[in-house]
Every structure is written in C-alpha cells, then in structure tokens.
Design brief:
Elements lengths: L3 H15 L2 H5 L2 E8 L8 E2 L1 H8 L8 E9 L3 E10 L3 E11 L5 E10 L4
Length: 117
C-alpha cells in the first residue's frame, strides 16, 4: 500500500486514462475546488463541474512522469512532466488538499510550458 498522495495520484492517472465518470468522482469531494491554473478567476467548483471539465478532449494522449514530492496528512505535492506529443510539454507542480476520507477537497495545477515536442 502506498501513501495517501501516491494512492491519490494512481487514481488520478487511472481517471485520466479511462475518462470514466466514476473514476473522476472517486478523486474529489462533492464540493471540491479544481483550479486548472492558480491564477484562474474561479475554479471548477463541485463534482459535477469537475466531471464535465474532465470530459473535454485533450490535444493528444499524454505521456506523464509524475511523483510525490512531499506530503502530510492534509496536503500532497506532486511534481513531474506531462508531454502531449505534437502539442506541448509541461513542467508540473500540483497541490492536493485532502478531505479526511482521502479525496481531494481542493486541487491546484501549477505548470510551465517547456516547448513543443
């Protein structure tokens, strides 16, 4: 068994690859905030809004190298890269703010583009 954050990351990757609604719902609380950028005017709020955003198409199948950087009982920090072949590469740092049950109550994506593939 992994840590809270590594288990959550494995679920995130599963949901990312499957795009199944039940996989996405398993990651976030009903009232979760999902910040796609830290400077967004407002996040996607609530599981219905998050599920809807996850249904949007991506430019290509992502190739990712992500791992847990640091964590405690309330916050996990994930870092790594995501490459959308033929589109863009990103350096990522993700904040996962946990509810007591291990789902995210707040998720923030920090990223920088690293140029095309």
């Amino acid at each position: 068994m992994g840590t809270r954050t590594s288990d959550w990351l494995a679920g995130y990757i599963r949901a990312w690859e499957s795009k199944r609604e039940e996989d996405v719902r398993a990651l976030f609380t009903d009232d979760a905030e999902y910040w796609f950028r830290p400077d967004d005017d407002c996040p996607a709020v609530g599981i219905e809004a998050i599920v809807a955003k996850w249904g949007e198409p991506e430019p290509s199948l992502p190739v990712h190298h992500l791992s847990v950087l640091i964590e405690d009982e309330r916050l996990g920090i994930i870092t790594g890269t995501v490459d959308y072949p033929g589109h863009e590469r990103y350096a990522n740092l993700w904040e996962v703010w946990f509810a007591p049950d291990g789902r995210a109550r707040k998720f923030v994506e920090w990223y920088m583009t690293r140029g095309g593939s």
